[in-house]
Amino acid sequence: MRRPLFIAEQARNARGMLGRFIAFVMARETLSENLRAIDALDVQPRDHILDVGCGHGRSLEILAARASKGHVAGADTSELMVEIAVARNRALVKARKVDVAIAPADALPFPDGSFDKALCVHVIYFWEGLDAPFREIARVLKPGARFALVFRTDADKTTVASFPKEVYRFRPRSEVTAALMRAGFAVQVAERDAEPVLAIATKQNAAAVVS
Ligand SMILES: C[S@@+](CC[C@H](N)C(=O)[O-])C[C@H]1O[C@@H](n2cnc3c(N)ncnc32)[C@H](O)[C@@H]1O
Questions:
Q1: Fewest C-beta atoms under 10 Å: which of 49, 63, 136, 161?
Q2: Can you list the domains of the chain with their CATH numbers?
Q3: Does the beta carbon of 121 sit less than 6 angstroms from any atom of ligand 1?
């Protein structure tokens, strides 16, 4: 069944009481895909990690437990999602182990080379283009840093039909991996036929990037 437009709008930009409910449901629905991305990052205790489009912030607490001597940051465009993520991680935020910023993926409020790892789960559908966000994520990563990206492609026709196209853009896998490479990542795609796709991208040294 096709998801109603007003629900899809909440996934893109959660607001109000309905937004709180959507955040609650989403935290459960996306947990396994977030764990898949987090496992692929092979988090080390001193890692600095960024979750782009962190939503409700459930991954932030999991990452903070694994990077016990490091730091975790989240960024999301929804003020409500950031409020929920901060409330969920209140003690970690107070201890300065976790920070959550209201910011879009293409204008992240972090200096160059801030992070060892990054993830982005079910967010790229809401971006008009891929180049600016991927370049911005590459900017804030250290050379050699790993980026785990989880997304559904247009190959999954059932999913494409279930989500309103006014809100969700499902792209071919090749379009996403090409954009990652243009942004300076070497890309490895796990489980070739699996949906959602998990792409593991490694930031190359500037000299290795072919434009
Ligand atoms: C479907 S939710 C996924 C949240 C979380 N990553 C998860 O796996 O449960 C998409 C999230 O991306 C955020 N978002 C949408 N557009 C964004 C953008 N341009 N930059 C950063 N976050 C964005 C939304 O506010 C929402 O929290």
A1: 161
A2: 5-208 (3.40.50.150)
A3: yes
